[in-house]
Automatic annotation (TrEMBL), chain A:
This is COP9 signalosome complex subunit 6. It comes from the Eukaryota. Residues 401-429 have a biased composition (Gly residues). The keyword Membrane does not apply. Belongs to the peptidase M67A family. CSN6 subfamily. Keywords: Cytoplasm, Nucleus, Signalosome.
Automatic annotation (TrEMBL), chain B:
Gene3D superfamilies: Cytidine Deaminase, domain 2 (3.40.140.10). Pfam families: CSN5_C (PF18323), JAB (PF01398). InterPro entries: CSN5_C, JAMM/MPN+_dom, JAMM_MPN+_peptidase_M67A, MPN. It comes from Friedmanniomyces endolithicus. GO terms for molecular function: metal ion binding; metallopeptidase activity. Transmembrane segments: none annotated. This is COP9 signalosome complex subunit 5. It comes from the Eukaryota. The keyword Membrane does not apply. Keywords: Hydrolase, Metal-binding, Metalloprotease, Protease, Signalosome, Zinc. Residues 49-186 form the MPN domain. GO terms for biological process: protein deneddylation; proteolysis. PANTHER family: EUKARYOTIC TRANSLATION INITIATION FACTOR 3 -RELATED.
Length: 438, 353
């Protein structure tokens, strides 16, 4: 293992990035593809380091990292390089199927230490940059050593862009910050896998026993309740205790509950941070302790302040303030009107209230539609059963009475009696409801 | 090479040979199974499908990216006992696959070279199936699909057909996916009605196609798997996308799709109504009302599905309102009360959002 100093990496530029920072969005699929490749590569004892490419969209200074694929490598004079012709053709194949929006190479990924890019990463990055003629290909490093110590949702990856200060000088790297962004379909896919995906234990002879067992081993804590629901979903609709619709409702409610819990945790975190700050002249006008300049994290405090200032934007605005200029005025008014009662929830005169009411009505309408159609279906079912029963009655009564007239009367009289007797059969419990049906 | 050694040492810790067993690939085992061909004797041999996390997400995203056009792709993986294990998915550059019989031929060259290059890079799995999308009309096999799958099963067995519905996926918030295998020609399954009834309501425009071929295939049980490394990353990712969970507005995003669904239910109801009118004059015999009931039962199911999805969307909107909007005025007053106490610091004005 080469001796690496703990914090200083000669290849990494420190200090703030210039104003023309790039805006990078990482998609979960790229990350999961890399992790899938790592798992496969390791378990199949494949040779060579783990290197691959990431494609995404590039729009001026903003990049997305959306899909990833592994690369065939070759060794040349001790340098690890990608197989040039293989790489070019493979990239072309990916470009072919990602045309709208057109995706292109934006980064290559490799395993790397926390300190940053190492000398071994240089040749292949340079080669790829030359192959594609794109100097802004980034380097994504996956830090295997961080995986078991993930805290606070930090991902074990870092992104670097290559910077060449002068022609011919050593290429250096600057770390980039990125955020995670997902599309709708991607989010649903990731959600499904996170909740319902079980461990990849080997398939055994008794397959049904296996799925029951492996679902109990669901790794994430959120998955435990979901795994049981998933078993029920696998059964046909009639066998499950909960109908599939109920299952879905429960699943989405649980997801929301988890999300709210997360929000609560975060807010508590911010609150506990703020309460641990030393008292200053802001909170207590008589305090004479000078604000500690060195330890206060002003950026953080500014962020918290801006968060608080955004809160009033969420309040459904009353019509009066909607006309005032800018958001500041709107938020200033409630404070000055503090003694007065809060703007009462007036009849939906503001746009968002009206839209919300409309949406609610639409949803209730669809429920009504569903209930109506079910009632009609039940009525029809009852009607047809009644016909069958009355016919049976006719057939039975004909040999006894030998008269057709009686049969007609029997049919009419049997109508009410048939309804009651059907209720007596205990078939559809809705006979009481549908008696009035034509 | 120094880097190689260092890497392998680290990655060993990232995998768990027992819980990540499906990621291994035993080429000899696969070959042996391919030679034995137990599925020849039993048309219902394969019963389960396990799809990896990346394969699933890739297929769903591909389906969604096609919009209202059907897309198509290939799945790679292997088989074990009575299970298909899908390890990865590959997009194919074809579109509009439901209207053409030979859509796959166009992509043949792409498929062959793609798989060849994958093998060169170390991904040794064979093609194990194909997937395509039915945007908005559910997961089942159309007549053309059945034909394609039958052909694939005769040449390339073991082969699997998977269908994804991206619109239903987004609307329900859950991946709508189905896996199927066709029966050989002339084979009559014992319980012919089961697969047909199990399907969720199929739109009227496609109902004829669905009904005509429903007996020629059966569906397999689908489950998903992920690696231990995936799980750890997903836990970290959850910290990022819980925001999306709370802030999504399904009622708004799915408006068009739901409208179409309602129109479809309307059309089906009209159809049932017409057929009822025709038969109402005659004395209702045993079988006739039954088929009417079946049809109507499907309409009811479709209506209830729409209602429940809408309800979930409304719940999302209500949750947002309750959590954020209701308490916001009080919160704001409290924030201002603190800020303007010390009169000299005009913090209330200095709001740089």
């Amino acid at each position: 293992m080469a001796g690496k100093s703990a914090s200083i990496n000669p290849l990494v530029l420190t200090g703030k990035a210039p104003d023309t920072t790039q805006h990078v969005q990482l998609h979960p699929l790229a990350l999961l593809t890399i992790s899938d490749y790592i798992t496969r590569h390791t378990l199949r004892s494949q040779e060579g380091p783990i290197v691959g490419a990431v494609i995404g969209e590039q729009d001026g200074r903003s990049f997305t990292l959306e899909h990833a694929f592994e690369c065939k490598l070759q060794e040349l004079n001790g340098d690890v390089l990608v197989d040039g012709s293989w790489f070019a053709e493979r990239l072309e194949q990916y470009r072919d199927v990602h045309k709208a929006p057109p995706l292109d190479l934006v980064a290559i990924f490799a395993l790397g230490p926390v300190e940053g890019p190492q000398k071994v990463h240089l040749p292949m990055l340079k080669q790829v940059q030359q192959l594609t003629g794109n100097d802004s290909v980034m380097l994504l490093l996956f830090h295997g050593e961080l995986v078991d110590h993930l805290q606070g949702g930090k991902l074990p990856i870092s992104l670097y862009e290559s910077v060449q200060e002068q022609e011919g000088a050593q290429v250096k790297f600057r770390e980039l910050s990125f955020e995670v962004e997902t599309g709708e379909a991607e989010m649903i896919g990731v959600d499904t896998v996170a909740k319902a995906g079980t461990a990849a234990t080997a398939v055994q002879r008794a397959d049904t026993a296996q799925t029951g067992e492996s679902s109990k081993k669901a790794t994430s804590s959120k998955g435990k309740g979901k795994a049981k629901d998933k078993d029920k979903e696998d059964d046909t609709e009639t066998a499950g205790i909960l109908s599939p619709e109920d299952d879905e409702l429960i699943a989405s409610l649980t997801a929301k509950a988890n999300a709210i819990r997360m929000l609560n945790d975060r807010i508590n975190l911010i609150r506990s941070y703020l309460t641990t700050l030393p008292p200053s002249y802001l909170t207590d006008a008589n305090s004479t302790t000078p604000p500690p300049r060195d330890t206060t994290n002003h950026i953080l405090l500014r962020n918290v302040n801006s968060l608080l200032s955004r809160v009033p934007l969420l309040a459904p605005q009353s019509p009066i303030v909607a006309l005032s200029n800018g958001h500041e005025a709107a938020s200033a008014i409630p404070s000055s009107a503090a003694p007065a009662p809060a703007p009462a929830p007036s009849p939906p005169s503001s746009g968002i209230h009206a839209a919300g009411a409309k949406e609610r009505q639409d949803v209730h309408l669809t429920s009504l539609l569903a209930v109506l159609s079910r009632s009609v279906a039940e009525a029809q079912a009852m009607g047809s059963k009644f016909h069958i029963v009355s016919r049976e009655k006719e057939n039975k009564s004909r040999p006894a009475f030998g008269g057709g007239g009686r049969g007609g009367g029997g049919g009419g009289g049997g109508g009410v009696g048939g309804g009651r007797s059907l209720g007596g059969f205990g078939e559809e419990g809705l006979t009481g409801e549908v008696r009035g049906a034509p | 090479m120094a880097q190689k050694g260092w890497e392998i040492e680290n990655t060993i810790k990232l995998v768990d040979p027992t819980r990540d067993a499906l990621y291994k690939y035993d080429a000899d085992k696969v070959k042996k199974l391919n030679n034995e061909r137990p599925w020849r004797s039993d048309p219902n041999h394969f019963k389960h499908v396990r799809i990896s996390a990346v394969a699933l997400i890739k297929m769903v995203m591909h389906a969604r990216s096609g919009g209202d056009l059907e897309i198509m792709g290939l799945m790679v993986g292997y088989i074990e006992h009575e299970t298909f294990i899908v390890t990865d998915a590959v997009r194919l550059p074809v579109e509009g696959t439901e209207t053409r019989v030979n859509a796959q031929d166009d992509a043949n060259e792409y498929m062959v070279t793609f798989l060849e290059r994958s093998r060169q890079a170390g991904q040794m799995e064979n093609a194990v199936g194909w997937y395509h999308s039915h945007p908005g009309y559910g997961c089942w096999l159309s007549g053309i699909d059945v034909g394609t799958q039958e052909m694939q099963q005769s040449i390339n067995d073991p082969f699997l057909a998977v269908v994804v519905d991206p619109h239903r996926t987004i609307s329900a918030g859950k991946v709508d996916i189905g896996a199927f295998r066709t029966y050989p020609q002339g084979y009559k399954p014992e319980d012919s009605g089961s697969s047909a009834e199990g399907m969720a309501a199929v739109p009227m425009a496609k109902a004829a196609d669905f009904g005509a071929h429903a007996n020629r295939y059966y569906s397999l049980e689908v489950s998903h798997y992920k690696s231990t490394l995936d799980s750890k990353l997903l836990e970290a990712l959850w910290n990022k996308y819980w925001v999306q969970t709370l802030s999504s507005s399904p009622l708004f995003t799915n408006r068009e799709y739901v409208t179409k669904q309602i129109e479809d239910v309307l059309a089906k109801t009209a159809l049932v109504h017409d057929s009822m009118k025709k038969t109402s004059g005659l004395p209702p015999m045993g079988p006739r009302p039954k088929t009417g009931n079946d049809q109507f039962a499907k309409v009811v199911k479709a209506a209830e599905k729409i209602a429940s999805e809408e309800k979930m969307g409304l719940v999302a909107a209500m949750v947002k309102e309750k959590v954020f909007a209701v308490a916001a005025p009080q919160l704001d007053r409290a924030a201002h009360a603190v800020a303007t106490d010390g009169g000299d610091t005009q913090m209330a004005d200095v709001k740089v959002a």
